[in-house]
Amino acid sequence: MTASLDPLIYLKKALQLDSGHKASACAFAKFLIEQGEWKQAVEFINDFMMETDGFTELYNHLAMAYLGQKMISEAEDSIMKALAKEPRSKDTLFTAFRIKKSKGDKYAALYYIERIIRYDQACSDTFIEMASLLNEPSELHRRINVLEIALALSPTDESLFSRLVLDYCHYFDSTSVANLDRDLVENFKLMQLKAPSFSISESLKDKLKKAAQKVSGL
Amino acid sequence: MQSEPKVLLEKAIQLDPNLANAHFKLGVLFQFEKQFEEALECFKKATSIDSSYPEAECELAIELHRQKKLEDSRDHFLNALELDPNLTKAYFNYALLLIELKDPEEAKNNFEKVAEIDQNYAPAYFHKAKLLTSPDDFDEARKNYETAIDIDENYLEAHYYLAKLLLGGIATNKDGSLLDMRDWAVAKKHFLKVIELDQNYYKASYNLGKIFFEEKDFSTSKSHLLRALELSPEYSKAHFLYARIMEKENKAEQAIFHYEESIRFFTENPEALFHLGRLLFLLDDYPAAEKRIRESIAHDSQNSNAQYFLAKILMFEEDPGPAKKHFYKALEINPEFAQAYFDLALHAENSGDLNEAKIHFQKATDVEQNFAEAYFNLARLSSNPSEYELAERNFETALEIKDDYDECHYYFGLLLAKGEKLSKDGSLIRQPNPERAIKHFKEAIRINPDNYKSHYQLGILLANNAEYKSAFQELQRSIKINPKFADGHYQLAVLLMNENAISVLESSMEAKKKKVGANSKRKKPGKK
User: Which of A87, B131, B154, B484 has its CA 20 to 30 A from that of B71?
Assistant: First the structure.
């Protein structure tokens, strides 16, 4: 008889054998969340926690499942329980960030992303998420700096490079020569040197050229 | 009707009441007929009539001895010997009196005197030998028994005691160190001679049984012990030894019966009580086992094994204190009791005192340097990263002693897979050695193919190495061996949630199907 390759069969069996098997519960909840089965995930986790004490990872999954259903208040409640148990868990902080972001509470979202960065400064995705929050014109300068860090962490990421080029172009378009930030200009010049190693679109190439002309005299 | 000589002697005395010789001879006749009171009176008369009559003095002393008038007896023996310094019978019987008067040295001298006067007086050699009980006198005792047998080859007691001497065989060297002079082959020969002379001599049968028991010839031992029990059904020692054989033959019910019989016929029997308690413990009857072992300790508190088994029984109690107390007692009696250190360590571990457990495992290895299980458990408990090297060394030692120790290979694999240790500056570092770990998990599986935990751990390591097919097989084996192993099912799910793994496994299954299909097609013409 051929063994099954369906992970769910094994997960269900593990939970059937040990109804308190935490790792299996987490994996099963995660699987449901990845499949977009938010409601089922919430029901499963709540059932599981009726017999077993809640723990960080499962509260985090519950928060994600509630978030998937746009039940923000319940999601916040769950993520607070997770954070109370492990305030330095990167995954939990990231879910908290996503909840706040979804709620439109930009400053709270930024607070959580900054906390993540404090514990882990080597993940470009965190900086990309942070950049996505900095969407005010007044935050353009800061956003460029954040994206620069993200690119330094993922130096071959083409979409990141394109995004950074666009932001630089936008900055040079919207700022008079006299008000240009010297450091940004220097960074831009360094970035230009990297351009040949990326396959960027023609329109972006044009924009890059224009921006280059603007700072060439500086 | 009275016998004729007696009538004649009485007539002679009637005619002449001062005939000392007639009184003496009449006394001898009464002795012969076991009329000792009358004999005593005759000898008294004879000596009062003739104060220079050594034979009468001697017989009077013998009768006084029989009546437990020991000091009076001594006086008359001395009178006899003063009157006749070569009177063998007086020397011999005086020596027997001296044994009762707790003067063995003087008794020995008198037996020697007998042998000087009459070199063929076998009982003198025999009784002297019986007095030579010190290990220093082993050779001399043996020589005297042998001489007694040389003089009288049917001297039953000499055969029996010589055999007993050779059964024990405790002797000393010139420098006082103990020597093992056991000679069971010769001892057996003499016990058999005893049985030849007296088929009802049950002690000889028992001792033969004992020798064959020690030689592990249980079948022969059994037949001799059964004979002893047939002759003397209340013989406690024979019941005990027979019970030991029954235990060795896994006949627990019979063993219990004979231990109980042994105790019934000799209640203050710590050995039988201990062995019965130990057997009941092995049969999981803990309350009965505890009762018997406690009774054994009440009679002999210095039996380290009894203290040890009582501790083992008390390990099941909630309070760890009493068991610990008896483990310590066992170790106080026998500080070289490695197994007691080992079990005390397990007990400490079960009570949550890991540091104490480690100390006792260590002690067990100090006492018994080839104690693989103790090295293994010491290593297993050294789980702190600061003890990594210690754990590694002890696992290696355990495996050097016992290389087919699957559990040790498994735990060593875990240590190597985890690889948590402290750097020189004290910070925690992770340096797993998956290659070595895999080697040990594989070895554990080779030794015990049903070691599902090793299959499981091996599966995890192979998955980490992207050897998905083998990983899948190992994890499958772990849950096949133990279908209730939740972790195994979980790890399979984790593996199958890995996209790379699933693609490898799917293509492998596809290839397998194709192969099966091709084979079945090829078989068709054959079927026609």
Answer: B131
Residues of A in contact with B468 (CB under 8 A): none
In angstroms, rounded to a whole number, what is the distance separating the alpha carbons of residues B263 and A144? 95
Q: Which amino acid is at B237?
A: K
Residue of B nearest to A10 (CA): B489
Label residue B526 by pLDDT band (50, 70, 90): very low
- Residue A13 pLDDT greater than 70, yes or no: yes
Kindly state whether A20 is in contact with chain B, defined as any CB-CB distance less than 8 angstroms: no
CB contact under 8 A, A7 and B505: no
Which of B474, B490, B496 is most worth mutating to test chain A (most A CB atoms within 10 A of its CB)?
B490
- Tokens 């007095």, residue located: B131
> Are the C-beta atoms of residues A58 and A49 closer than 8 Å to each other?
yes
Q: Best of B456, B468, B489, B500 to disrupt the A interface by mutation (most A CBs within 10 Å)?
A: B489
The whole-angstrom separation of Cα B429 and Cα B405 is 29
d(CA B200, CA B205): 9
Q: φ and ψ at B430, to 5 degrees?
A: -115, 115
Distance of CA A147 to the CA centre of its chain: 13
pLDDT per residue over B253-266, tens digit each?
999 999 999 999 99
The Cα–Cα gap between B274 and B293 comes to 5
Burial class (CB in 10 A: 0-12, 13-18, 19+), A212: middle
Q: According to the model, what pLDDT value does residue A201 have?
A: 86
User: Could you tell me which chain B residue has the CA closest to the CA of A31?
Assistant: B497
Q: Counting Cβ atoms within 10 Å, is residue B518 exposed (0-12), middle (13-18) or buried (19+)?
A: exposed
Report pTM.
Answer: 0.74
Q: How far is B257 from B265, CA to CA, in rounded Å?
A: 12
Of A2, A7, A17, the CB nearest to B493: A7
Is residue B76 a contact partner of residue B64, using CB atoms and an 8 Å limit? yes
CA distances from B5 to B8, B26, B401 (A): 5, 8, 85
For residue B149 the two structure tokens come to 């047998």
Helix ranges (H only) for B283-433 are: 286-299, 304-314, 321-333, 338-350, 354-367, 372-381, 388-401, 406-418
**Residue B118 burial (10 A CB sphere; 0-12, 13-18, 19+):** middle
